[in-house]
């Protein structure tokens, strides 16, 4: 509703883009990042195609070299 009243409002576009990001709808967030003046975010999220967080291509398994509170992979 906020964008219907003021389509050029940067804050409304920023918050709507953030809502789309939290729903993993990256491509839908891109035009709102553009309208909010965040061109780099708009390009970044417009480049996401298909389902997010999917790994394609070659994969590898690496052994842990050390176990501590934070694992270290060398």
UniProtKB/TrEMBL annotation:
- Highest taxon above the source species: Bacteria
Name of the featured protein:
Uncharacterized protein
């Amino acid at each position: 509703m906020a964008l219907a009243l003021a389509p050029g409002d940067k804050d409304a576009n920023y918050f709507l883009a953030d809502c789309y990001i939290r729903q993993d709808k990256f491509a839908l967030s891109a035009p709102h990042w553009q309208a909010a003046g965040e061109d780099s975010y708009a390009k970044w999220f417009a480049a996401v195609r298909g389902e997010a967080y999917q790994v394609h291509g070659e994969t590898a398994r690496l052994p842990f070299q050390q176990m501590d509170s934070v694992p270290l992979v060398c």
